[in-house]
Fold each of these.
Amino acid sequence: MTGQFGNKDKAWSARFSEPVSDLVKRYTASVDFDRRLADVDIRGSLAHAAMLAATGILSETDLASIQRGFTTIREEIAAGRFEWSLDLEDVHLNIEKRLTELVGDAGKRLHTARSRNDQVATDIRLWLRDATDEIIALLADLQRALLNLAERHAGTIMPGFTHLQVAQPVTFGHHLLAYVEMLSRDAERFADARRRINRLPLGAAALAGTSFPIDRERVARELGFDGVCQNSLDAVSDRDFAIEFTAAASVLMMHLSRFSEELVNWMSPRVGFIDLSDRYCTGSSIMPQKKNPDVPELIRGKTGRVYGHLMALLTLMKGQPLAYNKDNQEDKEPLFDTVDTLVATLRIFADMTTGIQVRADRMRQAAAEGFSTATDLADYLVRKGLPFRDAHELVALAVREASDAGVDLAGLGLARLQALSPLVGDDVLNTLTLEGSVGARNHIGGTAPEQVRAAIGRHRARLS
Ligand code: ARG
């Protein structure tokens, strides 16, 4: 057998006396999944080749041949005509082999001053940088969708909960803005991780650097990296940037999972705060009355798989001595699946948000239950001069009385409230209304409709 690289079609075959067994070939090959890196692999190779020519390591004629070859390869891949071969192990060797078929010796020279170790690290960083940008953009879309909904419901009153018990009234807009805050921090985390993702490993070669007079800064500029990795051993071996990305992804999914849990809960007929558009729900094959919130449930479920990928990558790294080890080939599938899950989840969440129908009457009814304005009565008494702890005690008595009588605090009536404390004036009933309660919390971070509208304005300015 003769091939481009020698007698066994493999880059290192001259040293070996028998072919790799089929079992080993299948076990070690990554081309089935890393062909997804083809585009970034070619971008990296083109920048490397241009640098080799600029530094005189490669001739201009060879560079032109390499560029021509890659144009053809890109067309073949786009058209689905490219023949991926398991014999050639991974995306890098498949593409290099085809390049050599197309342009001859120039293709064989491309790998000068480079190793697959710095090549794959470069590919994965380029790919992840682009994916990070897409995720940050999708996060902005989702935040905008939430802001639109929050704006429509800046004054819609719902119960705020602690311990899943009605605590104090809040506005639905305020509740939604809590998630906008979480998502804005998620976007910051991705942007921060991007700074460390966006460093160029190329030039590290296998592990120690190269004896050729390369220009790493030039390659970095051409590929849009912010700088070069400063240590060759570190450059080819660490995948902490992928771990960081997956950690940010896990926190994001955790937030989306919490939100999903609320949507499921709000949709339950017992709660009935919202309805989700039919396109986000499924029926039951046996119970004709059912409309199940499958999408938020699945988002909650997919959170677990992203956490799993984070654990996989952490574990992948923990036992590896310097420098490159084949273990690192296992970095790709968790990363790819994390990105796929995030992209799909963010898209569907933004669209789902536009299909949320709010049942303001049900929210209001629930907020009116559970003595949600009890704190307002205590605050009222404090303003009249009572120390807060005493006010708290007094309102607890009022709640007990109202509860026994089966009425809310306002339902006790002015006379009974005044009997509890002479400080109670006839202005007290205003403070016990739901509108009075939310409107009074009128400071940055508070639930008052005015504050909700101001916060929406700030978020919109940040996202524009
Ligand atoms: N497919 C390999 C990976 O994903 C490329 C690097 C292989 N290098 C090596 N020395 N075996 O990591």
Amino acid sequence: MNFSLIVPSYNEARNLPTFIAAATACLDGEDLDYELVFVDDGSSDDTSEVLKREIESYRAAGSGRAAFVVVELARNFGKEAALHAGLERATGDCIGFIDADMQQDPQVALKMLRFLDDNPEIDCVAAVQESRKESLPLRACKKLFYRVFNGMSDTRIIADVSDFRVFRRPVAEALLSLREQFRFSKGLFAWVGFSTHVMPYQVHERLSGKSKWTVRKLVSYGWNGVLAFSTWPLKLVMYTGVILALITLFFFGWDLFEKMAYNYDISTTQLLVYVVLLMGGIQMFVLGILGEYMARAYIEAKNRPVCIVRSEYAFAAAANQAPSKVRASASTASETEALSDDAGTGARCA
Ligand code: UDP
Ligand code: MG
């Protein structure tokens, strides 16, 4: 079996020597062909030079089994884009994501890989932080975000799950088939499905430097996630409009009843307020409907596959022939044919 470990790296020159030493020390001892795929996400420090130097000295030592890929992005595109670029180059049967700052232990990545080895029915192992070393307000905000997101979206994400994961190639192919620009990997992993095992792990302190997340970036990342996976904000506008219109109609009806029963006066101002509120409610309702159509156009424009196939079996007509498994999930048609001559269909259903 072989393994690709993807390492997004943005200004990580000071952490990468330790990371490479730790990752190779951990994986070289295993009976495993593996590659480390580094994506330099437009670093302004000497990340790339350090990477190449460290790789050369590792290769010069001649005792390791690691292969390396270094991808340099033309500018800082963000971690999600870096992960995608890494996925496009990774060739392993199993693929993992890990940060370069030593907050995530390569040993845990190996443990996740071994778990996949031992459990063929599982396709993805996701590490979840056991305890968080974050301030109370930040923790509360994140907890609230997961609640709100899962309440609003049909795609459910597991709270506190990071993108520190190891998964099988079909999962990678499925992720690659989603070409959208605004990428929110927690949501993408949840959307493609596959059986996922959650593995708790202890997050370490960052070795050197600071986290690239600022409050502004976190808020915009969360908002992107909501917009990419839910049209709930639009529905909220629509429902508010309906409720406003209904409340207005109720009070107007009540006043009308009082006028007819007890001959109470309805002032012009009152009437004006009712008209304004009713029109406002109707307008919000119509805006919501328009928004829904736009949202659908947006979803279509993302061109996501209609569904992702996990596996597929072909049964030959002759009873004495065993069914052949067509390993699927967004694999290409030629791959499918190589695995089974009986299968005439491609594995992708979109
Ligand atoms: N990263 C990246 N591009 C960015 C920001 C971060 O590739 O624009 C990488 C970074 O080098 C690290 C990983 O993503 O390997 C996680 O970043 P960070 O440590 O800042 O995030 P945190 O651990 O605080 O969530
Ligand atoms: Mg970090």
Amino acid sequence: MGNIRVEIRENVGILTITRPKQLNALNREVLRELGQALDRVKEDDRIRCLIITGEGKAFVAGADISEMAGMDKAQAHEFAVLGHTVFKKIETLPAPVIAAVNGYALGGGCELALCCDIIIASENAVFAQPEVGIGIIPGFGGTQRLGLRIGIGRVKRMVLTGERIKAPEAYAIGLADGLVQPEKLIEDTVALAKTIAAHPKNAVAAAKKAVQSSYSKRLNEGLKHETSVFERCFSTDEPKQAMRSFLKKN
Ligand code: DAK
């Protein structure tokens, strides 16, 4: 796999997205490889807790805008199905998943962190849902999963302004569950993962499932609604124009 690396430390898996030149932006290839890697992790009895992180200065700077700019409505739909399928694999993986957010977690990157069970932020992490700026809405669950962590006013503030939330604020408002020094991010997250991994495997999986069940029905309905609203964004020229203007500036 060209964009994903998985290493195992005792009974903890560390999955790293390795596309640092594009700030680990999620294109179709990265999403497919992420899905395959998650399937393997699920089958690997050694892994009792999984950490997801990014290589370089970003966790994930969002969906790949250069790929999205060329999508028509049908391709956007396919992309949505792919993304939702992969993100669901994280949410339903029996082993808990911890996002170790090492830098930018923007758009689809913030949404990737949100579908992990626990989010640990490095002090230099930055979270945002900037999609409105490129003519779309968060389409990988951000409009639904953010509300499970922060209040509705804060969700609207993030989604409507696209503004960036720095790690200390993210921790203060419950968007992140831990705040650690950048150089200790992996070490501290592995220590947390080992605490989880030391408990009986079936009890941990059952506890994760039970907590998920407290909100999964409402979440699944919300995700369907988000997808239909998202796809409608592609029925005008707004996203294409806004994405092209982002690409021109870069
Ligand atoms: N896509 C593609 N390339 C990206 C990228 C992205 N999201 N983010 C960064 N890059 C690329 C840059 O174009 C640049 O490439 P080169 O010019 O070197 O070839 C390289 O990464 C380094 O970026 P910068 O030079 O811009 O680095 P800086 O440190 O100056 O700035 C930045 C870092 C993160 C502030 C900046 O790169 C930035 O603003 N990036 C875009 C962030 C963003 O808007 N992200 C949200 C994308 S929208 C869907 C569901 C969900 C989504 C889509 C569809 N469906 C349901 C179908 C999700 C949408 C999003 O995530």
Amino acid sequence: MPDAPDTTHDPDYQRLQWLKAELTHHAHRYYVLDAPEIPDAQYDAWFQELQVLESRHPEWVTPDSPSLRVGGPPLDGFAAVRHRVPMLSIRTETDTEASGAWAFDTRVRKELELSADAPAVGYVAEPKFDGLAINLRYEQGILVQATTRGDGETGEDVTQNIRTIGQIPLRLDPRHAAVPPILEVRGEVYMRRDDFERLNERQRQRIAAGAKGEKTFVNPRNAAAGAVRQLDPKVAASRPLSFYAYGWGEVSEIDGAGPAWSSHFEALECLKGWGLPVSEWVSRCEGAQALVDYHHRLGQMRDQLPFDIDGVVYKVDRLDWQKRLGFVTREPRWAVAHKYPAQEQLTTVLDIDVQVGRTGKLTPVAKLAPVFVGGVTVTNATLHNEDEVLRKDVRIGDTVIVRRAGDVIPEVVAVVHSEPGLKPNAPQGGLFDPPQRGAVFRMPAHCPVCGSAVVRAVDEADHRCSGGLFCAAQRKQAILHFAQRRAMDIEGLGDKLVDQLVDSQVIHSLPDLYRLGLSSLAGLDRMADKSASNLLDALNRSRQTTLPRFLFALGIRHVGEATAKDLARHFGQMDAIMDADVEALLQVRDVGPVVADSIHTFFQQPHNREVVEQLRACGVHWEEGSGSATAPQPLLGKTLVLTGTLPRWSRDQAREHIEAAGGKVSGSVSKKTDYVVAGSEAGSKLDKALALGVTVIDETGLRELLSLPAD
Ligand code: IVH
């Protein structure tokens, strides 16, 4: 022990002990609780002071010193470590439907010989984190070894790298409960999505700057696995890893008795008390229906979680029951993983097409061998732009990872060059010969739709067709954009109809829509009288609109719904916007030079002004105001989230009121959310708000914030 009699009174030694205790406490506040109590600069200063003291007295360095978090010298390899208690895997329920949870509960009840009328079994449901399993060995409360799972019997000693993870305590906090002399904590090391994006951005910059041996990562899981198995702990320290504890291995007895855990949930609470991060999404569930609800709830939230999950895990809560249920081969009978549809799959690139969008942007699109991913069959995936295709070097014939998360359009993540054991998806039936690897991709010099020259502006990643509305593809997209629900809301004007109207030359410009008559529609293929008159009704209804909708509908580059609303609020009148110079446009909230320039350029084109005039002449109208100079903005700078059904306002109405008062409406709840407005049947967003302590109000509360009468 370092504290021999002659050191205890050494002021340097006492200072060092104090620094270690403070740094340990503040690392927990910062990394685990996300609630720092001191400025980062103070932490850094103390950290440096500790490093200086330790460099003067290397004999005072102990395994729990926060200074070890920066990573030691590089290693030659990792030592093999035999697990004292094997690290098991979990049986996976492949049925991603609710029946997966019912089947597990049925098996558990049967094994426990519970009668049909016995009460519901208590479970703990947890996210199934998509990282890698790690065993943390604490002796006398100090982290002495961290090992990977390996084959479950033997893993690798990755202590140096794991020590660099700020969320993992180097010394357990015994204040809440005595720490057993030997305690192995098990959990998942993973990388948060935002950390992953930042890391890849940093890697891209390094590669661009000519750094050798650097690469970007395919997904957070691979990035985390790579970091944990880094031979240079300093590199590992620079990779942002996180950790969640979900179990334990060897646990010694304290004074003859083990920790008095009788349930899994209680054990997790105890781990939390010792300073280990336990996920806020862990939930106690009574019976199968509660598991189904949990699976559903987390599934809805999956894309908004800060980290990747590939399913959830259910565990029988009572530890005596876990013991009774035991194991089959390497899998416990008391736990099961209930998956979600995979968001990434392998498939083959059959071709690379180029599509032309509303603003003339050319997008390379990979045509894929059909693959079931993210719950749908995908045959196309975006490749974004030429630089992306070249960076990923995607070519015809390649095996690629496609990803489809939530409602996001499917994208090609990376080419897989040779990953043993991975087989690309082959179309059903028969042998499948992937095409030969094609040439390096290049954007065409001419628009594939109208033949106009393709141009790429300096400093821009996108190629564009220079044909403007001469290009049928751009015309079609412009009409679809104009007609969409959040713009002019012309019901029934969809892809197929727009194709027909443009291809048969019935419509050349937006105002032509309002000149349609029954006779011109009747000439189209498969157009029944009923649908023609419905469309004319819808067009007629759309004539009465609002200024923000109309502005958004025009499809000005960089003018989305939010900017359209800001513009309308600021200027109040269409003519004022059309005549505004860049200076005036820059006065609008959230409008920067690029957006201001785009709006100004748009209205400088006589053709575009003409379109606005003709639309007005066709009877398109809205109410004009006097601009925002006088309008009160009680919600300025506030972020609100809407959930459930409000008694009197629709979602869109509530949003319009909030935005008119200067507030923002966000789709997901975080600590930054100021209010969650909950109506009836509010779901996971309400749960999350309550978990995070965000203020929850109802419609009446919202009306109060807006200074509107309650009725
Ligand atoms: S418990 C005896 N809980 O899934 C049960 N595992 O096949 C041991 N995993 O590689 C594991 N999240 O890394 C458990 N909440 C969770 C988990 C989880 C992810 C991983 C674990 C292991 C695999 C088990």
